[in-house]
Amino acid sequence: MKPTRQAAILRLVRDQRLANQEALRQALAAEGIEVTQATLSRDLRELGVVKQGEGAASYYAAPSAPPPGPDLSGVLPALLLGVDGVGPLLVLRTARGTAAAVAAALGQGGFEEVLGAIPHDDTVLVVTRTPKARESLGERLEQLARGGRLDGARGLAAPRTPG
Questions:
Q1: Which of 76, 96, 147, 160 can bridge 80 by disulfide, Cβ–Cβ 3.0-4.6 Å?
Q2: pLDDT tens, N- to C-terminus, the chain (163 residues)
């Protein structure tokens, strides 16, 4: 899936000095992500990944500003499996290997009540400001997962209208 693959690409170019697309493709394959050269080129362009250095010392580098992340309304219906929490802590259960994509989309959502999100393999720990904020956020994310959409002005989930 594209959000998961692109999140892995960004993580790899931040963590390793990869000199070329073949080295990056092999690093992705080691994580179970198979990708063609054409798809990898397109992902690098979309993510704004650039080459730094010169000659044999060149390597891929992540952009200094994060690129726009995946849209929650597009990611959650496919990846969110469950929501649970206690106090100000919200746990999002995701499809295996997709928690980073969900956390990235959540980070781009502009939710004021979110202090931070920590992805694992199939869960995201979200720390909210208050238990009430956790309840509200959990309800909105569940609604999005059922096909709702975000109201861009306030980050509120609103039902989709047919058509």
A1: 76
A2: 787 888 889 889 888 989 999 999 999 999 999 999 999 998 888 888 888 888 878 888 887 655 555 677 778 888 899 999 999 999 999 988 888 888 888 887 778 899 999 999 899 999 999 999 999 999 999 998 888 655 543 343 333 333 3
Q: What is the dihedral of CA 134, 107, 76, 25, to 10 degrees?
A: -140
- Beta carbons within 8 Å of 116's beta carbon, 6+ residues apart: 126, 127
Note the pTM of the prediction, 2 decimals. 0.54
- Alpha-carbon Rg for the chain, nearest whole angstrom, is 17
Given a contact cutoff of 8 angstroms between Cβ atoms, the answer to whether 79 and 141 are in contact is: no
Tokens 């869960």 — which residue? Answer: 123
Alpha-carbon dihedral 5, 105, 161, 80, rounded to 10 degrees: 70
Contact in structure between 136 and 113 (CB atoms under 8 Å): yes
